[in-house]
Amino acid sequence: MVLLRKLPGMPGWPAALGLRLPQKFLFLLFLSGLLTLCFGALFLLPDSSRFKRLFLPRRATASASSSSSSSASSSSASSSSTRDTDLPRSPPAAAEPRHASPAAPRRLREKLRTVARMAGPPAHTAPGSRQQVQGGERRAEPATGAPPARETRAPLRFDYERFRRSLRHPVRGRRPGEDPETRARRMKIKEMMKFAWDNYKQYALGKNELRPLTKNGHIGNMFGGLRGATVVDALDTLYIMELEEEFQEAKKWVEKSFDLNVNGEASLFEVNIRYIGGLLAAYYLTGEEVFKSKALELGEKLLPAFNTPTGIPRGVINLGSGMSWSWGWASAGSSILAEFGTLHLEFLHLSELSGNPVFAEKVMNIRKVLNRVEKPQGLYPNFLSPVTGNWVQHHVSIGGLGDSFYEYLIKSWLMSDKKDSEAKKMYDDALEAIEKHLVKKSAGGLTYIAEWRGGILDHKMGHLACFSGGMIALGAEHAGQERKQHYMDLAAEITNTCHESYARSDTKLGPEAFRFDAGTEAMATRLSERYYILRPEVVESYMYMWRLTHDPKYRQWGWEVVKALEKHCRVEAGFSGIRDVYTTTPTHDNMQQSFFLAETLKYLYLLFCEDDVLSLDDWVFNTEAHPLPVNHTNFKASVQ
Ligand code: DMJ
């Protein structure tokens, strides 16, 4: 229209053509139609068209190309043009992740060469997702036309039989003669698992968790409309404990009722560790295809969360629409270290089983971003911006918000059959910095790991941080000769401190967090930190310490936990968390957490098994205690 404006002293050009008023009107009508046609044609041009790139705003196209690229971090062009105001706001109903601490607002081994090797022969990468820019907010939508993993599989398949033959130990052990007491204790734990499962099945099958007091089910808002968290979390424990009938019940539910076509906001982290981890483990243990195909299908649904300028995924994803958000409580739209840092093990297996490298590429990119960013004093803060790739806040913790990131570094190395030397180095460096800045000894001689806020120490340890005894012992096995004993000692000291947090309570169960200040040692000082929700971390460390030292005190300590669970947490219809560990008549929270079946009971059971049951030579446990095989590559055979 600017072109048609009459310039002073010059006739307008329709007038210059000597047209009358009706003719002028018709001419203008024709011209505007022509313009509309030309402009519309631009949008019909294929994505790659140079014209489209010339006319459309740079940011939208950049994000489209960055998301389809396997290495999102390299799309820094798009990140530099994206302002913070483009950050998604969290949806009002977004839930907190269960691993978050209550005080905080609840909580390339051989580089890409190895990824390619682990992910199998080159398969074509699924076309990436497109990002939608809506009302100033960037939201991810599912890859339009992205074929599911099954269709992108290379013409090779995972040879399950060959994989099983490669294991160094029978999965459920050889069962040599053993002392009757150990056997009886193991059988007791098996009975507890059966009791927990039977009650879930009777009152809550298909819901996510059992409410054992009110005898009904709980759905919650962590899993984006997915159901059956307890079923999927329990599968491998039922299998390992040889609860055959119960395992078949759980399998049948997965086959018949596990619906992945849901529409709701899920925690990327929780869906990955519980559902993908649980399904993968069930597949590797049994070879049942249904577990593999469900894991791959669900894995595809998580991919849009990675469509950010850096490739660091956001914490919340709508499994139906593929839109993703950061948690509302995470400062400045940041992503959480323990969440985006706890995808590596599962995603490598998704690539291995599908033949589609996209999963491995996503997590290798996370590592690339983490390696690039500067670490204050060598430490990894808990909040990182998925837009800039920089830390948002300097809060460091080996408990909630940080915990399983460190666990996945050492386990990535172990799972790669000790080839992923980059992960090992990252773990070694991180542990060195943690030891230097966070590890302290109390006046009473208890070793603990404090939290760090921009250089100021908070002398508290969360129950979640108690997994670290086991992790440090696992890593110590592979430290140089001179460091090995040092780390074994550190692991034993931390495990002892966590045991003290149990021993000093009236119930002999530990609080959610305990402190070392104002004369307090290994006890909760705040009312809000006195609860116990059937968490596994302390018995997890007992299990590793037992396997790596065979010191009988760890079995003894584990048995004390069994007795305490029976006394204070067992109710008429299942097991329940308690609200205060410092009273012998605690009230119950009416929740049987799915991780009680996945982790707490599994680690207790393994504590009373021979070492060849789920041998550490063959398996690594994901952070939800789902076993994933170590030596898992090179099991491809031609499709018949
Ligand atoms: C589990 O879901 C996992 O262990 C996670 O890493 C954090 N903690 C809970 C159980 O406490």
Automatic annotation (TrEMBL):
Keyword Transmembrane on this protein?
yes
The record describes its membrane topology as: Single-pass type II membrane protein
Q: Which cofactor does it need?
A: Ca(2+)
Q: Give the EC class as a word.
A: hydrolase
- What gene makes this protein? MAN1C1
- Could you tell me where the Basic residues compositional bias lies? 165-174
The protein's matches in InterPro entries, at most eight in alphabetical order, are given as: 6hp_glycosidase-like_sf, Glyco_hydro_47, Glycosyl_Hydrolase_47, Seven-hairpin_glycosidases
Q: SUPFAM superfamilies in the record, alphabetically? A: Seven-hairpin glycosidases
Reactions accelerated catalytically: N(4)-(alpha-D-Man-(1->2)-alpha-D-Man-(1->2)-alpha-D-Man-(1->3)-[alpha-D-Man-(1->2)-alpha-D-Man-(1->3)-[alpha-D-Man-(1->2)-alpha-D-Man-(1->6)]-alpha-D-Man-(1->6)]-beta-D-Man-(1->4)-beta-D-GlcNAc-(1->4)-beta-D-GlcNAc)-L-asparaginyl-[protein] (N-glucan mannose isomer 9A1,2,3B1,2,3) + 4 H2O = N(4)-(alpha-D-Man-(1->3)-[alpha-D-Man-(1->3)-[alpha-D-Man-(1->6)]-alpha-D-Man-(1->6)]-beta-D-Man-(1->4)-beta-D-GlcNAc-(1->4)-beta-D-GlcNAc)-L-asparaginyl-[protein] (N-glucan mannose isomer 5A1,2) + 4 beta-D-mannose; N(4)-(alpha-D-Man-(1->2)-alpha-D-Man-(1->2)-alpha-D-Man-(1->3)-[alpha-D-Man-(1->3)-[alpha-D-Man-(1->2)-alpha-D-Man-(1->6)]-alpha-D-Man-(1->6)]-beta-D-Man-(1->4)-beta-D-GlcNAc-(1->4)-beta-D-GlcNAc)-L-asparaginyl-[protein] (N-glucan mannose isomer 8A1,2,3B1,3) + 3 H2O = N(4)-(alpha-D-Man-(1->3)-[alpha-D-Man-(1->3)-[alpha-D-Man-(1->6)]-alpha-D-Man-(1->6)]-beta-D-Man-(1->4)-beta-D-GlcNAc-(1->4)-beta-D-GlcNAc)-L-asparaginyl-[protein] (N-glucan mannose isomer 5A1,2) + 3 beta-D-mannose
Q: State where composition is biased (Basic and acidic residues).
A: 150-164
Q: Where does Ca(2+) bind?
A: T623
Name the active site residues.
E270 (proton donor), D403, E512 (proton donor), E537
Instruction: Report biased composition (Low complexity) as residue ranges.
Output: 62-81, 92-105
Where in the cell is the protein located?
Answer: Endomembrane system
Q: Which family does it belong to?
A: Belongs to the glycosyl hydrolase 47 family.
Q: What is this protein called?
A: alpha-1,2-Mannosidase
Role noted for this protein:
Involved in the maturation of Asn-linked oligosaccharides. Progressively trim alpha-1,2-linked mannose residues from Man(9)GlcNAc(2) to produce Man(5)GlcNAc(2).
Please list the GO terms describing molecular function: calcium ion binding; mannosyl-oligosaccharide 1,2-alpha-mannosidase activity
